[in-house]
Specification:
Layout (H helix, E strand, L loop, with lengths): L6 H27 L4 H20 L3 H19 L6 H24 L8 H10 L30 H24 L3 H19 L5 H14 L8 H19 L1 H5 L5 H12 L6 H9 L9 H12 L3 H26 L7 H20 L3 H15 L12 H18 L13 H9 L4 H31 L10 H14 L3 H20 L7 H22 L7 H12 L8
Helix pairs in contact: 1-2, 1-4, 2-3, 3-4, 3-5, 4-5, 6-7, 6-9, 7-8, 8-11, 14-15, 14-17, 15-16, 16-17, 17-18, 19-20, 19-22, 20-21, 21-22, 21-23, 22-23
Length: 572
């Protein structure tokens, strides 16, 4: 059975989801204009209920949870029509917009990251008078181990802990208040760490000491500039404060308790956001087996900004306009390099001004490095005064060409890539530009290869059909191995290794079993199994060609088919 879920399945229903969200938004606007007409809001709630089912089926957990909370808020509004509805309606409208942006984000990045929806989920929950969901809702721990044995620190002394506990708690609270206010967060975090370290030392090897250890990890993360102090994280710090209070009042009883599992999970999640994985952070991540692919605070902020930015259609329009303008500039420089007329100081100034405008637009798109590169070259071009200043072989001219190529590659990162791969980052854009390649042109080349590969599969399928209809006349198969070998080369170029291995197996099967072994005629079941493998690869390429990846499940089918034929796909 082909399993299609998450990012792959979203591609199959994206247009219908967009249409449903548009209808829901329209119904909500009509209700806001005419609150007495409950039918409009009821229609909106019904759409949310349907969307929740679709999101669950395609395994988009964050989207399913958000839509469920939107449905709940809609029902809350219907049940409390005597109260001020404006904030709730505004929150619901914002949630619809965020959900639309999230679906575009998932489709473009081929990554779900449901944690990005937690702020919106909590906004909707608060409007419905519900408690906030923890940030670690979608964060799963591989295990919940005991704390590693402490090797340093002063001897445990519960009597002394009760004596100086109030002062240590006051130290913690002073720092916590500063953190809450956003005042000199780094220094205040150190104050809290100092207090927590003393409490930990005096507590000794007790169950609750695990919480003090995790608290140090949380504070280490919050002490870095790239981890925000959100309401949820403030709540976690407040919970640790309440445990300190309980310890001061009844040390033996409180210290004998284990930290609740949900608190442990939340603490490890916040710790995992730390920029530097060293010290206590490294200890915690290693103990809880949080992998190296963790999402740090800076990455989360960047992805959050990307998701909440302009919609995909707006970005596409801007990117297309930039591409067109860059094409005009490259044509002008190319004509000048070949000695064409009309390249004087005035025309160079126009090019320089145009580059500055593009650079400013890149800032709004978040491409700061590309913007700075373009501004530097705009300044250089502004100093050119005549056609004699253009030498196609000079370092200065090549620097301008490299800058334009780098910008092209950078804006290509804003669009979905061939095969649904993620967009390039600045380092990759620069690396590709240094090699003199354009990602846009490379993507076009990939599209051509996919098209040619599908054409080859089509020829092969027609030949196999003719072979069956002609009562196994092997003449129809003479060119099929060569055709499939060509397809294998294309798939190898595309780095689709699993699909390429299946093609090699198909080629070997046809050559060895159908062409060379004429003594044993194949049966219909055998040919259908071969067709399953070839057709599965064709479906896979078709989904890539339309930028709607169907997922690797279809490759499982192809590999299982060749296994059944006795020609398993093995990497070359």
């Amino acid at each position: 059975m082909v399993v299609i879920e998450g990012t792959a399945s979203l591609n199959l229903v994206k247009e219908q989801l967009d249409e449903s969200l548009s209808v829901a938004e329209s119904s909500l606007e009509q209700y806001a204009e005419e609150p007495s007409n409950n039918r409009r809001l009821t229609q909106c709630v019904d759409l949310f209920r349907q969307l929740k089912g679709v999101m669950t089926i395609v395994n988009l957990q964050g989207a399913a949870m958000l839509v469920e909370e939107m449905e709940s808020l809609g029902e809350y509004i219907l049940d409390h029509q005597d109260s001020d509805q404006e904030p709730s309606l505004a929150g619901l409208s914002n949630a619809i917009m965020v959900l639309g942006h999230y679906l575009e984000y998932v489709q473009a990045k081929q990554s779900t990251l449901p944690v990005l929806l937690i702020p919106t989920i909590n906004e909707v929950r608060s409007l419905a008078k519900k408690p906030l969901a923890p940030e670690s809702t979608f964060f799963r721990l591989a295990k919940n181990p005991s704390r590693p044995e402490k090797t340093t620190g002063e001897p445990a002394d519960h009597v002394k802990l009760e004596e100086i506990g109030r002062r240590l708690r006051h130290m913690y609270q002073v720092g916590m208040l500063g953190v809450f206010k956003g005042e000199n967060v780094s220094t205040n975090v150190k104050l809290m760490q100092r207090a927590l370290d003393r409490i930990d030392s005096l507590s000794g090897d007790v169950p609750l000491a695990k919480l003090w250890w995790l608290g140090q990890g949380v504070l280490s993360a919050l002490g870095s500039e790239n981890v925000e102090v959100t309401n949820s994280r403030k709540s976690l710090l407040g919970m640790i404060d309440r445990q300190i209070k309980a310890t001061i009042l009844q040390s033996e009883v409180a210290l004998a308790k284990e930290a609740p599992d949900h608190v442990v999970q939340e603490a490890v999640f916040v710790t995992s956001l730390a920029e530097q994985a060293d010290g206590v952070v490294a200890e915690i991540l290693a103990a809880f087996e949080v992998g190296g692919s963790r999402l740090d605070g800076l990455t989360m902020q960047r992805e959050q900004a990307l998701m909440n930015g302009p919609s995909g259609s707006v970005i596409k329009s801007v990117v297309d306009a930039i591409k067109e303008e860059l094409a005009h500039i490259k044509d002008s420089l190319d004509l000048g390099a070949r000695g064409a007329h009309g390249d004087d100081e005035e025309s160079f100034n126009r090019i320089s001004v145009a580059l500055v405008k593009i650079a400013n637009t890149l800032v709004m798109l978040g491409l700061m490095d590309a913007s700075n590169v373009l501004k530097d070259q705009a300044g250089n071009i502004a100093n050119w005064t005549s056609i004699d200043d253009i030498d196609a072989d000079s370092e200065e001219f090549n620097a301008v060409a490299d800058a334009l190529l780098y910008v092209e590659n950078s804006i290509a990162s804003l669009s979905p890539r061939m095969g649904g791969a993620q967009g390039v980052d600045d380092n990759e854009a620069e690396s590709v530009a240094k090699e003199g390649m354009s990602i846009t042109q490379l993507e076009e080349a990939r599209r051509l290869v996919v098209g040619e590969s599908r054409a080859g599969l089509s020829l092969a399928k027609r030949a196999l059909t003719s072979y069956m209809e002609s009562n196994w006349d092997g003449m129809h198969l003479n060119n099929v191995p060569v055709t499939l070998n060509t397809v294998w080369g294309g798939l190898t170029f595309l780095q689709l290794d699993r699909a390429a291995n299946v093609m090699k197996s198909c080629e070997d099967f046809i050559r060895g079993r159908l062409i060379n072994d004429r003594a044993n005629e194949p049966d219909e079941h055998l040919m259908e199994t071969l067709a399953d493998a070839i057709t599965s690869i064709d479906y896979y390429l078709e989904s890539i060609e339309s930028n709607k990846p169907i997922g690797d499940g279809v490759l499982d089918v192809a590999e299982e088919s060749m296994d059944e034929l006795g020609f398993p796909g093995v990497a070359a």
